[in-house]
Amino acid sequence: xxxxxxxxxxxxxxxxxxxxxxxxxxxxxxxxxxxxxxxxxxxxxxxxxxxxxxxxxxxxxxxxxxxxxxxxxxxxxxxxxxxxxxxxxxxxxxxxxxxxxxxxxxxxxxxxxxxxx
Length: 117
Known about the structure:
This protein has strands spanning 2-7, 9-12, 17-24, 32-38, 45-51, 56-58, 66-71, 76-81, 90-100, 102-107, 111-116. With 117 residues, it is mostly beta strands. The strands form 2 sheets. Strands 2, 4, 5, 6, 9, 10 and 11 form a 7-stranded mixed beta sheet that branches. It has a 4-stranded antiparallel beta sheet with strand order 1-3-8-7, with no helix packed on it.
């Protein structure tokens, strides 16, 4: 399984950016896709996840500003980020996980999001 993320970049505070991630390979139909982020000197943290059934979960810090969505036919997950803040600056990683006999967990290559004040 491979995850290819795109999007990100640099924006001023209050601006918007979008991320997308395409998964390819042998993937269970029942899976969870999501986004995590890691800022310099900090641990990787959850941003938002979405199941193949459409159930979402997101960090309190992004609620009301970030929207996660997915297209199951394209094995693609999206993250729309509005009202960006400097503290959103991080490397954002796409994640896919599912259970089929055992748990499988995959990561994308990471894409930089920089928000300037």
